[in-house]
Amino acid sequence: MKELVEHRFRGLWHYARGPDTGDISNTQFALLGLRAASNCGVRVAPKTFLESIEAFLEGQEDDGPPVTFPVPKLGSGPTPEVVAVEARQRCWGYKAVFFMPSPAAGATTSGRS
Q: Where are the domains of the chain?
């Protein structure tokens, strides 16, 4: 696990060691593995997860198309009332290009370019 934690770059992981960039799909698997290890009693420093949260928030688009989704209203009884919540669908570029000087290009995780 020590090697996995040391392999990251600014909270993200990549296929190669020390690439000075990160990849969202590799990062999700690294975080799932670290979470599983943590659930089994292996100590994972909270800063490892916090760095990834910061990287994802930094790389997320500022805005996106509006979406509406149903959410159960709290305290509305045994059969919860469902209310519509409006939000913005904000995505990430496939690679962590937000750490590089060039603008993001290519497909995103939502399928939008």
A: 2-62+91-99
Q: How far apart are CA 103 and CA 105, in angstroms?
A: 6
Tens of pLDDT, residue by residue over 27-39, are 999 999 999 999 9
Query: 27 and 12 in contact (C-beta within 8 Å)?
Result: yes
In the numeric block, which tokens belong to residue 90?
Answer: 């904000």
DSSP state for residue 34 in the 8-state scheme: H
Taking the complete model, does pTM exceed 0.85, yes or no?
no
| Tokens 């496939």 sit on residue | 94
Task: Give the Cα separation of 44 and 35 in Å (integer).
Answer: 8
Amino acid at position 87, single letter: A
